[in-house]
């Protein structure tokens, strides 16, 4: 594993030159951020849009404390790992989650030194953005995170000059695609691997894969380096590192295809329902048009005298001549 290099205000120029040199041979960057915690908590059963709205609120209201990133190639060889300390956050004035601040202090973050010797967010990201989005170089950088929604949120916000994040999750995904390109979340990938689980934390996943940590946990540089060897689980999905296709564009395309299938199914169902309704209406009309018929016995006309009614031979028989009285016969 590579030694973690720290970036402060007094060595920023030297370290950024090393970053620029490493980018020449690397096309992957794994990132991690440390931030002052969440002001608005999100429940487990929250919808995707609710989760994003809470993320948007928390990112817009707080400032990142550290950014860690590791540069590596398609073979997984790490060229360098850096931990950037930002001076913008002041724990005595800025909004923060006190429990998160206490947690970071227990894990060794020196907020006083970071405040005094750190680099400005705008100053760093102005140069960093030019490096990773060099129009002349035309190199495609693939971004790797571990449960990295907040990491991407802070990076996008810092790249755009601390502008507010988009109003919807769809707008956020489009912005990520536009500014960063292809992104991977190792936590989600692990959930699709046999023997692994998306509920694993970063350290648990590293232990399962036999990856040794360099540095201290919950420091941005160490966590970013631990995220970097995602190729260990990548082959389990038959991903080719030279042509990775698991992207947000593909995910949106598949969702769009599923929506089309559902729309077609609903259309077919409505057409079938309409056809059955028309058949029923036709049957009702036919019943109304058929004349009524009575198959019960009908009495013969009264003026004609027939044999004893009813006759076993039917209604229509030869009439019987009337009997004459004796006086009439004489």
UniProtKB/TrEMBL annotation:
Organism in which the protein naturally occurs: Brassica campestris (Field mustard)
Main location: cytoplasm
Matches recorded under InterPro entries: CNOT7/CNOT8/Pop2, RNase_CAF1, RNaseH-like_sf, RNaseH_sf
Cofactor: a divalent metal cation
The name this protein goes by in its record: poly(A)-specific ribonuclease
General function of this protein: Ubiquitous transcription factor required for a diverse set of processes. It is a component of the CCR4 complex involved in the control of gene expression.
Keywords: Cytoplasm, Exonuclease, Hydrolase, Metal-binding, Nuclease, Nucleus, RNA-binding, Transcription, Transcription regulation
Similarity remark: Belongs to the CAF1 family.
Catalytic activity: Exonucleolytic cleavage of poly(A) to 5'-AMP
Summary of subunit composition and partner proteins: Component of the CCR4-NOT complex, at least composed of CRR4 and CAF1 proteins.
Protein localization: Cytoplasm; Nucleus
Species classification: Eukaryota, Viridiplantae, Streptophyta, Embryophyta, Tracheophyta
A GO MF term: RNA binding
Domain of life: Eukaryota
Record EC number: 3.1.13.4
Pfam families: CAF1
GO annotation, cellular component aspect: CCR4-NOT complex; cytoplasm; nucleus
């Amino acid at each position: 594993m590579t030694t973690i290099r720290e970036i402060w205000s007094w060595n920023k120029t030297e370290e950024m030159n090393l970053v620029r040199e490493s980018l020449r041979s690397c096309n992957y960057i794994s990132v991690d951020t440390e931030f002052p915690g969440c002001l608005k908590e999100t429940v487990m059963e929250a919808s995707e849009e609710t989760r994003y709205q809470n993320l948007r609120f928390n990112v817009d209201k707080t400032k990142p404390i550290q950014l860690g990133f590791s540069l590596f190639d398609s073979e997984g060889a790490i060229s360098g790992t850096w931990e950037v300390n930002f001076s913008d956050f002041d724990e005595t004035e800025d909004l923060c989650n006190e429990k998160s601040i206490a947690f970071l202090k227990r894990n060794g973050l020196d907020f006083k030194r970071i405040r005094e010797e750190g680099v400005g967010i705008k100053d760093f990201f102005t140069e960093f953005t030019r490096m990773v989005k060099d129009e002349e170089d035309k190199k495609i950088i693939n971004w790797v995170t571990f449960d990295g929604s907040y990491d991407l949120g802070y990076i996008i916000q810092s790249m755009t000059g601390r502008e507010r994040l988009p109003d919807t999750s769809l707008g956020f995904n489009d912005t990520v695609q536009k500014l960063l390109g292809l992104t991977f979340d190792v936590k989600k990938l692990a959930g699709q691997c046999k023997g692994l689980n998306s509920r694993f934390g970063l350290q648990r996943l590293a232990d399962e894969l036999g990856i040794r940590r360099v540095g201290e946990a919950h420091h941005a540089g160490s966590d970013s380096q631990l995220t970097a060897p995602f190729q260990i689980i990548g082959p389990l999905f038959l991903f080719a590192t030279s042509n990775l296709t698991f992207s947000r564009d593909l995910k949106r395309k598949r969702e769009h295809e599923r929506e089309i299938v559902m729309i077609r199914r609903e259309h077919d169902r409505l057409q079938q329902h309409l056809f059955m309704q028309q058949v029923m209406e036709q049957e009702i009309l036919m019943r109304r048009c058929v004349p009524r018929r009575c198959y019960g016995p009908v009495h013969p006309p009264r003026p004609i005298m027939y044999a004893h009614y009813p006759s076993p031979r039917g209604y229509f028989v030869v009439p019987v001549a009337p009997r004459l009285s004796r006086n009439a016969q004489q």
